[in-house]
Amino acid sequence: MADEHNTGEGSHNIDLTQMRDMVKEEVAKALQANISTYMEGMEVSLQNFIRQEFATLKTSGEMERASKKVKLLIKDPERK
User: Fold this and answer.
1) At residue 14, what are phi and psi to the nearest 5 degrees?
2) pLDDT at residue 60 above 80?
């Protein structure tokens, strides 16, 4: 059979399909056990990234407004 492997002992064959299924189950269990921790870490990381981006946008917007105000004052010193 294509899914059987002779280990060299003659009477001891391993069913590769069965072995593959067992490995899939063990990997699935390991992933399932760690997925919530991984997702929590991703959530915190994403929240930090979003906060930094909003802070950058806010700072950029304030600087842009300040520079426009300075330009207006330079053009028309009477204006405040």
Assistant:
1) -110, 125
2) no
What does the buried/exposed string (b/e) look like for 16-35 if buried means 16 or more CB atoms within 10 Å of the residue's CB?
eeeeeeeeeeeeeeeeeeee
Domain that holds residue 72: 30-80
Structural domain total, the chain: 1
pTM, two decimal places: 0.42
Q: What is the DSSP string of 9-77?
A: SSS-EEEHHHHHHHHHHHHHHHHHHHHHHHHHHHHHHHHHHHHHHHHHHHHHHHHHHHHHHHHHHHH-T
First to last CA, the chain: 89
Q: Is residue 11 part of a domain?
A: no
